[in-house]
Design brief:
The complex is a heterotrimer of chains A (231), B (767) and C (82). Chain A is an alpha/beta fold and 231 residues long. Helices cover 22% and strands 25% of the residues of chain A. Chain A is built from five helices and eleven strands, in the order βαββαβαββββαβββα. In chain A, the strands form two sheets. Chain A has a nine-stranded mixed beta sheet, with helices on both faces. In chain A, strands 5-8 form a two-stranded antiparallel sheet. In chain A, helix 1 links the parallel strand 1 (2-7) and strand 2. The radius of gyration of chain A is 16 Å and the shape is globular. Chain B contains 26 helices and 28 strands. In chain B, helix 7 (123-139) runs parallel beside helix 9 and helix 9 runs antiparallel to helix 12. By secondary structure, chain C is α+β, with helices and mostly antiparallel strands. Chain C contains two helices and three strands; from the N terminus they run βαβαβ. Chain C has a three-stranded antiparallel beta sheet with strand order 2-1-3, with helices on one face. The relative contact order of chain C is 0.36. The chains are: A alpha/beta (231), B alpha+beta (767), C alpha+beta (82).
Chain lengths: 231, 767, 82
C-alpha cells in the first residue's frame, strides 16, 4: 500500500506525514512537485507547510504544479487524497473542495491541541472513526479561517460534507466551526489540524492518561490503508 | 563630516589609485575605525586602503565581527579545558558552531547568538533575521537544523514601548521559525526596566548529523570555484557604509540605505533543503554562511581558514538593486545567502541541484595558491589584501578594567533588612502576588505562537525544564537543551552570576534525565569602553570558564554582544548560558510536573536564608543588593548524577528544579503543569535547615530539585539519595482530587485561582 | 515601461480580518472618521514591448483564474499603463 507525499518548495510536514504512513503500516512514497509522475501510488497526501512562502495566496502557486494537476485528474477517478493545513489550502485553490481559507480572526499564528468532532466517518480517511467521536489533534496555523458563501455552507451541511468541526472554542473564526471537509465522493478530504502530529506515543498532544500520549491521528492513515486493501 | 571627494572617472577607488593618490582623505572614523587601526591597515598594505578595502576592514575589525575587546577573555574557554572535557568535542570554538559527538555515529551542532540592537530598531525583522542567522550557522556545519530556542529580555511590562518590542519580536520569531519548519522547544522571557532601551533577543539553534557529514568553512584547494548562492544581494543592513557611496554623481537610485536586514524564511527553507542535498552529494568542499559583514566575511574567512587565497570578480554577484556600489556589495547583509567552495569537476552536479530547488547562484571566482585575496570590479582591482589580516588578525584590545564605584555599597545592602511576612495570610498573599508577576507568569501567550510539533521529534518543550529532541528514531537517542541567565545575580557579582547561570542550565538538563555534555554562551554586556563594564565582563568570563572546568563540560562556541546601554546606563551583565545534554532514549524523559495522585514529593538539597537578588526581593520589595546565593558545584554534580542514576532505574515520576521564586513558585509550577494539586509541609525544612517560613518559600538557594516518586519506589529512592550523599527530605504528597495546593500553616490555595492569576497576566499586558 | 495593472479586492460580503485590524488600529489613533478599511492587491504585469488587446484579454483570464481566487476575491480592474 503505497501512499505518496508531495513536497513543494516550502513544504514542512512532509517527513511527518511519511512517518505517519509508516506507523499505520503503509509505504510512504516521496513525490516532487515538478514531476507529474505519481509513481502509481494508491493515495496521496498534500502535507502542511508554507508552500511558495504563501505567496499570492496560501496554496495558490502549488495548485498550479504538475504534480497537483495530476492529483486533480486522478482524484476525479477516485484516488484518495488528504490535504492537511497547507494541503487543504491547495485542495481549495484547486477547486477539489469548495470555499476559501483566510487569515485567522486573531491575526496570530496559534499552535494548540484542538478537540474535534468527527462529523462524517464515511470517507476514505475517516472510516476508522465512530460518528461523533471526539478526537484531539494539534492545530498550528495563521491562515486557517474557513469561509464560504451561504449557498455553499447550506450545501455542505445538507449533504453532510463536513468531516470535522472544532469543539471547545473556534481557534480561527472558521464559519460553522468547520475544521475539515470532504467531497461528495468521499475520496478527497481536507482539514486544517495536523493528524500526522498525533501518531506516535510520546510525541503527540498531552492527554489525561499521560504527557504527549495522544495518537488520534493514526486512524486517518489506517482508514485509507483499510480502504485500499478492501478496494 | 566628509571631506570633498574627488570624482573618479570609473566611479571606483582602485588599488592603483591607492598608490598614486596616497593622500586621499578617507572616512575611517565614520566607519568606526580608530586612528591606530587605520595606521595599521596602511602598514599591512604598504599603502592607503582603497575604499572597498577600508569598508572590509572596518566591518571585519568591528567589535561584532572581530571580538577585539573580548578575545583576551574568551581564550579562557579554550585554555581552562582538560583532555577529558574535549572527549566529545568534534569541533570547538572558532568555527560557525561547535560540534559534539552524541554516540551511535551521530553528532549535534548548537550555538546561541544575539540580535539585540536590530530588534530594538525593527523588532519584527530584527528577531526574524536573528533566527535566520543562527540557523544558517548550524546549516553551514553540514547539519540539518532540528530546533530553535530564544532568550528574550524586555523592559518594564507596563511601559508602552515594551509592547511594541514584545509584539514585534515574538511575531518575528514565530514568523521565521515556523516557516522554516523548526520546532521551538524552549527559552526564557524576562522583564526588567534595565532592558528598556536595550531589549535582548538571543536565538539558539541546534542541528543533527552523522559524523561524516561535517562541513568546514575553508577553501584549501587551489582551482576550486567560489560560488555565491541563495538570495540576491541588496542594500540590507549597510547603513553605515553609505558614507562611502558616491553620492555626488548618481542621481538615480535611493540615497538612503536601510540599516535593517529583511528576512524571507521561505528562501531560507529552500536554501536548507538545497544545501543538505548538495552536502549529501559530496559536491561541496567548503561552505560558509553569509551573516554579519556578508561577502567580506565569507571570502576572507574561507580563504584564511584554508590557508590559501582567492580571486573574486565582484560584478558576478547577482544583485537585487543594480545601483549598489562595490563597497555596498561587499558590506551588504542581505539574508539567506551561502558561499560554497566547489571543485571544478563537481560544478555540473552543483548546478543541477541548485536548479532543481530554483536557487540562484553565481561563480564569483576561484581559490588560488597565494596568501592573497584579490577582488576585481570589472577590469579594475579594488581589493588586494592578505586574508588573515581581515578575517583573523584583527586588533586585540586590553581595555581598562575598574571595579564599579557602586559595587561595595551594593554588596553591603543585603535584603536581610527587608520586612518579612508576619503571618500565614501575608505569606500566602506574597506567594500569590509573586506567581502573578510578569516574570513568573505563564508564557503561553508567547509559546503558543511557536510550532512545537513540526518534525515529530519533540520529546519535551515549554513549559518543561529543558527542551528535548529525539535525534535517532531507531534508538531514541536524543539531546536536551536549557538556557539560563540571571542579570540580577550577575549585577551583584558577575563572577558568581555566570557560575550560577551555568549551574541552572546544567540542573535544568539534569532534571529531564539527560547528562550534560557541552556549553554555549551569549554574553550580553554594556559598553566595553566603560571600565566598569569591562570588569563585569572579565569577572563573568572567568566565572564561566572556571565553572565549566569544575563541572567538566566545555564551551563549544558562543557570541558576545557589547554596547547594550542607553547613554551611560548599561544593562545588567547578562551572560546567557546554554547547556546541551545527551539522553540514551528520550522515552526515559522526565516531565517537570506531577501527574499521579498520592506520590511523595521530595525536596533534594538544602535551603539557606539567602534572599539577596531574589524575585521576592526585587519583584515584591523592589530591592536588589547583597550577594547572590552561594553555589557549590560539587553539589550540582552529585545532584545531576543522582537524577541520572534514579532515572535510569525508572524511579522518578517528575522532577522540577528550584530557581527564581524559590520553593513556593516551584511547587505552584509543578502543580499547574498537569493541574494536579499537592499537600506540602514546611516544618521539616524549617527544622533541619534552621530557617524561617519566608526563607523556606522564597529563598533561591542552589542545587535543589523537587522530585516525585511512585509509592513503590520510595525506599529505593531514599536509599539512593543517602548513598550518594544528596540531602533528601519528604515535604509533601501529590493530590489530584482536592483541586488545591495546601501548604501547611500557610494556606490552602485553589489551583483554579492560581491558574487564573498566573495565566491572565500576559494577555492583560499585551492583548 | 508598458504594464498591465490588475487590482484585486476581497469580496464585499466576506470577512477581511486584515482590513478590520488596520481599521481598529486607526480608530485607536483617534481616526474615527474612517468607517471601514478593506485591503486588496495591486499586481503589475510588465512587458518589454507595446501592449496589445490580446495581452489585455490574456491578463483578464489570468486575473480571473490564477491571480485571484473567485471564491474570496473580485478582480475590480485590469488596465493598461505606460
Amino acid at each position: 500500500m503505497k501512499i505518496g507525499v508531495i513536497t513543494y518548495p516550502g513544504t514542512l510536514d512532509d517527513r511527518d506525514a511519511q512517518r505517519a504512513i509508516r506507523l499505520a503500516g503503509g509505504t510512504p512514497v516521496p513525490l516532487w512537485h515538478a514531476d507529474d509522475d505519481l509513481k502509481k501510488v494508491d493515495a496521496v497526501v498534500l502535507p502542511g507547510g508554507f508552500s511558495y512562502g504563501d505567496y499570492l495566496r496560501c496554496g495558490a502557486i502549488a495548485a498550479q504544479a504538475p504534480a497537483t494537476k495530476e492529483v486533480i485528474r486522478l482524484a476525479g477517478q477516485g484516488l484518495p487524497v488528504l490535504g492537511i493545513c497547507n494541503g487543504f489550502q491547495i485542495l481549495v485553490e484547486s477547486h477539489l473542495l469548495p470555499g476559501g481559507l483566510i487569515r485567522n480572526e486573531k491575526q496570530h499564528f496559534v499552535c494548540k491541541d484542538q478537540k474535534l468532532r468527527v462529523e462524517n466517518n464515511q470517507t476514505s480517511w475517516t472510516n476508522m472513526f465512530e460518528k461523533d467521536e471526539e478526537i484531539l489533534i494539534p492545530l498550528k496555523n495563521g491562515e486557517g479561517g474557513y469561509i464560504a458563501s451561504d449557498e455553499t455552507l447550506k450545501m455542505l451541511e445538507d449533504e453532510n460534507l463536513i468531516t470535522f468541526r472544532y469543539l471547545d472554542g473556534n481557534p480561527n473564526g472558521s464559519l460553522n466551526d468547520i475544521a475539515g471537509l470532504t467531497n461528495k465522493r468521499g475520496n478527497v478530504v481536507g482539514l486544517m489540524p495536523h493528524p500526522e502530529h498525533a501518531v506516535e506515543p510520546g510525541f503527540g498532544p498531552d492527554t489525561k492518561t499521560a504527557m504527549r500520549s495522544g495518537i488520534d491521528g493514526l486512524k486517518f492513515f489506517q482508514s485509507v490503508l483499510q480502504q485500499v486493501v478492501n478496494a | 563630516m566628509l571631506g570633498k571627494k574627488k570624482l573618479e572617472p570609473s566611479g571606483v577607488d582602485t588599488t592603483a589609485m591607492a598608490t598614486t593618490e596616497p593622500e586621499k582623505e578617507q572616512p575611517w572614523q565614520e566607519l568606526g575605525l580608530k586612528q591606530d587601526e587605520y595606521a595599521e591597515i596602511k602598514n599591512i598594505l604598504g599603502r592607503r586602503p582603497t575604499s572597498s578595502e577600508l569598508a572590509m576592514y572596518s566591518v571585519m575589525w568591528s567589535e561584532h565581527c572581530s571580538y577585539k575587546s573580548s578575545k583576551i577573555y574568551l581564550r579562557q574557554f579554550g585554555e581552562k579545558v582538560t583532555p577529558e572535557m574535549k572527549k566529545y568535542l568534534m569541533v570547538g570554538m572558532g568555527e560557525n558552531a561547535g560540534v559534539v559527538d552524541i554516540g551511535e555515529g551521530l553528532a549535534v551542532t548548537f550555538k546561541v547568538e544575539s540580535h539585540n540592537h536590530p530588534s530594538y530598531i525593527e523588532p519584527f525583522q530584527g528577531a526574524a533575521t536573528g533566527v535566520g542567522g543562527i540557523v544558517r550557522d548550524i546549516l553551514s556545519m553540514g547539519a540539518r537544523p532540528i530546533a530553535v530556542m530564544d532568550q528574550l529580555r524586555f523592559g518594564a511590562p507596563t511601559n508602552p514601548d515594551t509592547a511594541r518590542v514584545v509584539h514585534g519580536v515574538v511575531d518575528g520569531i514565530s514568523f521565521y521559525g515556523n516557516c522554516l519548519g523548526l520546532p521551538n522547544i524552549g527559552g526564557e522571557t524576562v522583564f526588567d526596566s534595565v532592558y528598556q532601551g536595550n531589549p535582548l533577543v538571543n536565538a539558539l539553534s541546534i542541528g543533527s548529523m552523522k559524523h561524516e557529514d561535517l562541513q568546514l568553512a575553508k577553501a584549501s584547494n587551489p582551482g576550486d570555484l567560489v560560488i555565491l548562492f541563495g538570495a540576491r544581494t541588496g542594500a540590507d543592513g549597510i547603513g553605515g557604509v553609505s558614507v562611502l557611496a558616491s553620492e555626488t554623481f548618481e542621481s538615480t537610485g535611493p540615497t538612503k540605505r536601510p540599516a535593517v536586514q529583511v528576512g524571507d524564511p521561505f528562501a531560507e527553507k529552500v536554501l536548507i533543503e538545497c544545501c543538505l542535498e548538495l552536502f549529501n552529494s559530496g559536491v561541496v568542499a567548503g561552505i560558509q554562511d553569509l551573516g554579519g559583514a556578508g561577502i567580506s566575511c565569507a571570502t576572507s574567512e574561507l580563504a584564511s581558514n584554508g590557508g590559501k587565497g582567492m580571486r573574486v570578480q565582484l560584478k558576478n554577484v547577482l544583485l537585487r538593486d543594480e545601483s549598489l556600489t562595490p563597497e555596498e556589495i561587499l558590506m551588504s547583509e542581505s539574508q539567506e545567502r551561502m558561499c560554497a567552495v566547489v571543485p571544478k569537476k563537481k560544478l555540473k552536479e552543483f548546478e543541477k541541484i541548485v536548479q532543481k530547488w530554483e536557487v540562484e547562484y553565481s561563480v564569483l571566482g576561484d581559490v588560488i595558491d597565494e596568501d592573497r585575496l584579490y577582488i576585481k570590479w570589472g577590469h579594475e582591482e579594488i581589493v588586494n589584501v592578505p586574508p588573515r589580516t581581515v578575517a583573523h588578525d584583527g586588533p586585540i584590545y586590553e581595555r581598562p578594567v575598574k571595579l564599579p564605584k557602586y559595587q561595595k555599597a551594593l554588596n553591603k545592602d543585603s535584603s536581610s533588612g527587608l520586612a518579612r511576612a508576619k503571618n500565614a495570610s501575608e505569606l500566602a498573599s506574597q506567594l500569590m502576588e509573586l506567581i502573578a508577576t510578569p516574570n513568573q507568569a505563564d508564557k503561553s501567550w508567547i509559546t503558543a505562537q511557536y510550532d512545537k510539533y513540526v518534525g515529530g521529534n519533540t520529546a519535551l518543550s515549554m513549559p518543561d525544564d529543558s527542551g528535548m529532541i529525539r535525534v535517532s528514531e531507531e534508538s531514541g537517542l536524543g539531546v536536551a537543551l536549557a538556557t539560563d541567565a540571571n542579570g540580577k545575580y550577575s549585577y551583584l557579582n558577575p563572577y558568581e552570576g555566570a557560575r550560577l547561570a551555568l549551574a541552572e542550565a546544567y540542573r535544568n538538563v539534569a532534571v529531564t534525565g539527560a547528562l550534560p555534555r557541552a556549553v554555549t554562551n551569549c554574553l550580553n554586556f554594556g559598553s566595553p569602553e566603560n571600565p566598569e563594564v569591562m570588569w563585569q565582563f572579565k569577572e563573568a568570563t572567568a566565572g564561566l570558564a572556571d565553572a565549566c572546568l569544575e563541572l567538566g563540560i566545555p564551551v563549544t562556541g558562543g557570541n558576545v554582544s557589547f554596547y547594550n546601554q542607553s547613554g551611560d546606563i548599561a544593562i545588567y551583565p547578562t551572560p546567557v548560558v546554554g547547556v546541551l545534554g545527551v539522553i540514551d532514549d528520550v522515552a526515559r524523559r522526565i516531565p517537570s510536573g506531577w501527574q499521579d495522585d498520592g506520590n511523595n514529593i521530595y525536596l533534594l538539597g538544602e535551603t539557606f536564608d539567602e534572599l539577596d537578588g531574589s524575585a521576592w526581593a526585587k519583584d515584591l520589595h523592589d530591592h536588589l543588593g547583597g550577594q547572590p546565593p552561594k553555589l557549590d558545584l560539587a553539589k550540582e554534580k552529585l545532584l545531576a548524577e543522582l537524577l541520572h542514576g534514579a532515572s535510569i532505574q525508572g524511579l522518578i515520576e517528575s522532577a522540577h528544579d528550584l530557581s527564581e521564586g524559590g520553593l513556593g513558585i516551584a511547587v505552584l509550577e509543578a502543580s499547574l503543569r498537569f493541574n494536579v494539586g499537592a499537600r506540602i509541609w514546611l516544618g521539616d525544612i524549617l527544622d533541619r535547615d534552621q530557617i524561617d517560613q519566608t526563607a523556606a518559600l522564597f529563598s533561591e538557594s542552589q542545587s535543589r530539585v523537587l522530585v516525585t516518586v511512585g509509592r513503590e519506589d520510595d525506599v529505593k529512592f531514599q536509599a539512593l539519595c543517602e548513598a550518594r550523599g544528596v540531602p533528601c527530605l519528604r515535604i509533601g504528597v501529590t493530590d489530584s482530587t482536592s483541586g488545591l495546593v495546601e501548604i501547611k500553616d500557610v494556606a490552602d490555595l485553589k489551583l483554579e485561582d492560581i491558574r487564573t492569576s498566573w495565566s491572565g497576566v500576559m494577555s492583560e499586558l499585551f492583548g | 515601461m508598458p504594464k498591465i495593472i490588475v487590482e484585486i479586492m476581497p469580496k464585499q460580503d466576506l470577512l477581511d480580518p486584515q482590513g478590520k485590524a488596520v481599521s481598529n488600529s486607526l480608530h485607536r489613533e483617534g481616526k474615527k472618521e474612517i468607517t471601514a478599511v478593506r485591503i486588496g492587491k495591486r499586481i503589475e504585469l510588465h512587458f518589454d514591448r507595446e501592449i496589445t488587446d490580446q495581452d489585455l484579454e490574456m491578463a483578464k483570464t489570468q486575473a480571473a483564474n490564477f491571480l485571484s481566487n473567485d471564491v474570496i476575491e473580485d478582480v475590480v480592474a485590469v488596465t493598461k499603463e505606460d
